[in-house]
Amino acid sequence: MKIFICLVSLLSSNFVVAQERWQQRVEYTMNVALNAQTHKLTGDQKLVYYNNSPDTLTKVYYHLFFNAFQPGSMMDVRSRTIADPDRRVMDRISKLAPDEIGYQHIQSLKQDGKAATFKVNGTLLEVTLPKPLLPKSKTIFEMTFEAQVPVQIRRSGRDNREGISYSMTQWYPKLAEYDFQGWHAYQYVAREFHGVWGDFDVKITLDPKFVIGGTGKLQNPEAIGHGYEKTGSAVKRPKGDLTWHFVAKDVIDFAWAADPDYTHDIQQVPNGPELHFFYQKNERTTTTWKNMQPVAVRVFQFLSSTFGKYPFDTYSIIQGGDGGMEYPMCTLILGEGTQAGLNGVMAHEVAHSWYQMTLASNEALYAWMDEGFTDFASTEALNSITNQPNTHASSYASYFGLVSSGLQEPASQHSDHYTTNRAYSTAAYSMGAVFLQQLKYIIGDEAFYKGMKRYYNTWKMKHPEPNDFVRIMEKVSGQQLHWYYRYWIQTTKRIDYGVGSVTEVNGTTLVELQRVGEFPMPVDVVVTYREGTKELFYIPLNEQLGAKPNEDKSIKRTELDAWPWVYPIYTVQVNRKTSEILNIEIDPSQRLADVNRKNNLKELNEVKPFKDPTQ
Ligand SMILES: [Zn+2]
């Protein structure tokens, strides 16, 4: 016994075991009734909350998103004071009448049967627990609430501009996430909905004329009698209010939409989810929604095979909302646009099933891992369907546009706190996509796609942090990559390399490369010879502590010594006479987000042999 104790103490003193990542868990059971005359939602919510943290919690926070849709709310003021407001919001909140605003009123709240005190602060509910919640323990919150569904302003609400009755997103009191960084209880002023992983059991009662689409799987299709029949044959609608029962497991949110005029189509993705389409059939939707359905099937197939298998067995594409917004197992999108627009927004929202609904990064803090990765994945899905190369040119163009606008801010900012919406959206969508395309440039395609799958399989149903992604990419590539993440995401430093002087010395050519920008990168330089061949010189950056494998076996590649990042100049020795060289080009694949590509290519004039006129 003594020896045993001794061994244990020896082990524990030498090997300190790092704490594994923990995450909180929720189990919601909700019963709600929606009155389609008054647009009021009443109901109760039972929430089993698992505190898996090492901390004792004395408070919890809920989001009350509907409270944002009131004149004078933070969202209203933000929209009326930001330089480039979202056109969908503008000053519309300030003009809402009392029967048009949104609210969530908490009528009662108990923790394990004891009344809890709570305080509403804008879109947050602060709850003081009657009994502290100890580490590794669970508690039960029981709440009754009443909400008024606002006129649709942003994402959720009633009567959107295409006439969809109810877009029910951010519609219930939703517990805020608590993790190793503490509470993520942000006021709702524009965007982003970080959530706690868990299960939802939701019963929605409303007028039987409505059809509901949403998160989860309908548990009682027979009782409902319509909306979920595969044959498409008309089924008699029962009389009296109907209760729709949905269950969703391992999700971070629950959304739904309801309309009396939804057409419901179903498509099966081979080895993948069953797709449900809900839309109002009219001359602006009938053809485009039919054409979009096989494209959606192919998008799912591509994303599952390229980035990891979609983890749920259903997905619904629902007309609603005010653009496109992603939710677990469903999306709400506007439905009356062009075919290209509809396919594009569908593909984007579907790709969020990977980057947010499965890999649930904190989208408020790391919007580039959410919108950027999604933008990247959906672009590659559509490129694959239309046989286009993956240049991600439009993402680069919007990044370059932001740089020249002078509005750029670091992509590491909280999504709501950018000075302009443009700086946010370009950092999140475009710079996030360029982050990945440029990563291909650094580590090569093979390691990149292997890493994307490994990232998915390692972190699905969790909240990956930037470091988790970078570490996986380091492991698959054998390179250090944090330098790249820090420069691209945490600063606004720019990449600019140029070809400088070219001189001939003893029958060889010395090419001077200049690092003009502050952002160091590995450099691909291609020398094209007059006789028609090319040679690639690859210069790793010393920070990589590694090198990219040869990407194109058809061109001779010479790997040179690493470029120490402090050096502004690097000289490449080409073992040819200068007269044999046609041109020299940095980054011929154009995957480097080089803000000045004009100095990347140097054409060498044919050198005429010198003739002394005096002779
Ligand atoms: Zn998105």
Structure description:
- There is one protein chain.
- 25% of the residues lie in helices and 30% in strands.
- The chain has 615 residues and is of the alpha+beta class.
- An eight-stranded mixed beta sheet has the order 5-4-8-2-1-14-17-16.
- Helix 4 packs parallel to helix 5 and helix 4 packs across helix 6.
- The radius of gyration is 28 Å and the shape is elongated.
- It starts with a helix and ends in a 12-residue tail after the last strand.
- Mean pLDDT is 94; it is low at 4-11 and 228-234.
- Bound molecules: zinc ion (ZN).
- Zinc ion binds at residues 326, 348, 352, 371, 374.
Write the layout of secondary structure elements.
Blueprint: H1 2-14, E1 25-35, E2 40-51, E3 57-63, H2 74-81, E4 103-111, E5 114-115, E6 117-121, E7 124-133, E8 137-148, E9 157-158, E10 166-168, E11 174-175, E12 177-179, E13 182-184, E14 198-206, E15 211-214, E16 217-218, H3 221-224, E17 242-251, E18 256-259, E19 262-268, E20 274-280, H4 286-307, E21 314-319, E22 324-327, E23 330-333, H5 339-351, H6 367-385, H7 393-405, H8 421-443, H9 445-459, H10 466-477, H11 482-490, E24 497-505, E25 508-515, E26 523-529, E27 534-539, E28 556-559, E29 569-574, E30 581-586, E31 601-603
Parallel strand pairs: 1-14, 20-21, 21-23, 27-28
Antiparallel strand pairs: 1-2, 2-8, 3-7, 3-11, 4-5, 4-8, 6-7, 9-10, 10-18, 12-13, 14-17, 15-18, 16-17, 19-20, 22-23, 24-25, 25-29, 26-27, 26-30, 30-31
Helix pairs in contact: 4-5, 4-6, 5-6, 6-8, 7-8, 8-9, 9-10
The chain binds zinc ion.
Residues 326, 348, 352, 371, 374 line the site of zinc ion.
